[in-house]
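user: Kindly work through both lines:
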Amino acid sequence: MKKYSGLIVVCILALFIGLILSIQLRMTAGSDQGGLVPLAKVRGYEAELKMVKDEKEAIKQELLDLEDRLNSIESEKATDDAFVDGLVSDLEKYKTSAGVLDVQGPGVLVTIKDPVVKDEYEQDFSVIMYNYELLLSLVNKLKEAGAEAISINEQRIVATTEVSMAGNNVNINGTPTAPPYYVKAIGNPDTLDAAINIRSGIIETMKMKYNLIVSTEKKNELTIPRYTGTIKFKYAKPVGNQEDEQ
């Protein structure tokens, strides 16, 4: 009897241990990335993201409508008053210089693509993304050549533009971008093209040193979108305000 009682105890312990292991496995599976709880959270985040994007688009459209109304009022007043007409004209120049207006004109279009990948293990590697400073060099050369407006993948380059690596993307104005890169520059097409295609220049460096596929085209007309972000100055203030405060 003692022999059987010991066996019964062992069986009960085995069942108890098995039950505990089963509960732990279920809890672990529920907390896994593929479990129901995380999946529900991801879907919730996706819904929230979509809602925020929709709100952003609605606000953006409202802003465009208000700007149209303001431009209409400015044009109407400008036709009645020469002084107001001069102010409106100056305001347009400042807006264009700041990059907050869509602009169009002649210039060049530079297309930058990664080298053709022959090794399957390098398919996820982007040469231009990991050497994004080449984009900055190209922008600087275009500015030196007199470019009046520049964009990269439809992101307007302004004084506060930041270009940085973030994860698997290059962020421009806080917006993730990926190759191929299309760089537009408005200015004298011949001057811009000559400046970047000079021997040992930025385009030749991209091709010869990094094996990038780069092409440049002179265009009679390009359209470069406005900067859609918010420009804020935390430290810089007009000199007149500082003197008044003192």
